[in-house]
């Protein structure tokens, strides 16, 4: 039982790290042209949708694995 709990908690940590990496890779800064003449250009962040979805799926998986791992650890004590 302890090995399963440990695997679940390690997998949750890896999924969380993957979600953070995916989220950080999803954004890219872009320059937006001004709306009117004489106005400064603006900078914004454009997100890549597949990487955002991957981050959300990995975050959900990390949450589920963390709950299962912690519940199994508490049951085995």
From TrEMBL:
Name of the molecule in the record: Transmembrane protein
TM regions (residue ranges): 51-73
Keywords: Membrane, Transmembrane, Transmembrane helix
UniProt organism field: Mycobacterium adipatum
């Amino acid at each position: 039982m302890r090995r399963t709990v440990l695997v679940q908690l390690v997998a949750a940590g890896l999924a969380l790290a993957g979600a953070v990496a995916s989220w950080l890779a999803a954004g890219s800064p872009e320059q937006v042209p001004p709306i009117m003449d004489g106005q400064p250009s603006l900078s914004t962040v454009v997100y890549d949708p597949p990487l955002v979805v991957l981050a959300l799926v990995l975050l959900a998986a990390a949450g589920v694995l963390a709950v299962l791992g912690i519940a199994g650890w508490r049951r085995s004590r």
